[in-house]
């Protein structure tokens, strides 16, 4: 019976350990990434925050459908304007916007401006016409590398109060709870093992004392 209970306790402890490890593996990179991006966005509000030259961005429209869809999370890599080729998908500060909004469209033509600098004609795959103005090279954010379908919706949700509580606060509380429960199980097992060892030592001591007494009685006789 005791062996069955100990086995059950060991299984529960292992489950808590696995769950806690999974939560750490999932949450730690997300928290580090978010903190880094948030810090960079506050330090330089005129630039898209990046980690190691890579900028994650959420797509909000279907102008690049079906290649990229609204709700996707894309990764762009910083690059020299000279490395941009026709057919590349790039992210850039929209020259027609006064709010530093970032657009992701495909390069359909490369031009040289009067001052000798590069410019690109861009167009969304789902659009019927090119973007209204040639894009100056200085507006380049980066070249599209890959997308994670649908992850952008989760990122947007995490920026809400409800999402922050659901995706960050609750998992952290669960992680702490799992760690506390695992520690409590470990302490109970250690106390039980210690009590069993002390009882065994006490039994040996008693047996030894009994042996001495029997030896003394025999000697007296």
Provide an overview of this structure.
Helix 1 (2-43) packs antiparallel against helix 3 and helix 2 (151-158) crosses helix 3. The relative contact order is 0.13. This protein has helices at 2-43, 151-158, 161-220, and strands at residues 54-58, 73-77, 89-93, 102-112, 118-123, 135-136, 140-148. The model has no long low-confidence stretch (mean pLDDT 80). Strand 4 and strand 5 (118-123) form a beta hairpin. It has 221 residues and is α+β, with helices and mostly antiparallel strands. A seven-stranded antiparallel β-sheet has the order 1-2-7-3-4-5-6, covered by helices on one side. The protein is rod-shaped. Helix content is 50%, strand content 19%. It has three helices and seven strands, in the order αβββββββαα.
The global form is rod-shaped
CA-based gyration radius: 32 Å
CA(first)-CA(last) distance: 46 Å
Number of helices: 3
Low-confidence stretches: none
Helix and strand string, N-terminal first? HEEEEEEEHH
Largest sheet: 7 strands, antiparallel
Strand proportion: 15-25%
Helix percent band: 40-55%
Q: In order across it, which strands form the biggest sheet?
A: 1-2-7-3-4-5-6
Short summary:
With 221 residues, the protein is α+β, with helices and mostly antiparallel strands. The protein contains 3 helices and 7 strands; from the N terminus they run H-E-E-E-E-E-E-E-H-H. The protein has helices spanning 2-43, 151-158, 161-220, and strands spanning 54-58, 73-77, 89-93, 102-112, 118-123, 135-136, 140-148.
């Amino acid at each position: 019976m005791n062996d069955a209970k100990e086995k059950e306790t060991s299984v529960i402890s292992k489950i808590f350990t696995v769950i806690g490890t999974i939560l750490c593996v999932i949450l730690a990179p997300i928290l580090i990434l978010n903190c880094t991006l948030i810090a960079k966005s506050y330090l330089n509000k005129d630039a898209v925050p990046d980690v190691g030259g890579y900028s994650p961005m959420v797509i909000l429209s279907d102008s690049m459908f079906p290649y990229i869809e609204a709700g996707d999370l894309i990764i762009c890599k910083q690059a020299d304007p000279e490395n941009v080729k026709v057919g590349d998908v790039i992210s850039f500060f929209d020259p027609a916007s006064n709010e530093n909004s970032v657009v992701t469209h495909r390069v359909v033509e490369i031009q040289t401006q009067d001052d000798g600098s590069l410019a690109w004609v861009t167009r969304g795959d789902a659009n019927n016409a090119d973007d209204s103005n040639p894009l100056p090279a200085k507006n380049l954010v980066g070249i599209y590398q890959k997308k994670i379908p649908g992850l952008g919706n989760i990122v947007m949700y995490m920026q809400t109060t409800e999402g922050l509580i659901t995706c960050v606060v609750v998992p952290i509380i669960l992680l702490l709870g799992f760690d506390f429960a695992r520690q409590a199980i470990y302490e109970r097992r250690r106390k039980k093992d210690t009590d069993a060892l002390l009882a065994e030592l006490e039994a040996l001591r008693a047996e030894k004392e009994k042996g001495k007494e029997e030896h003394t009685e025999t000697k007296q006789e």
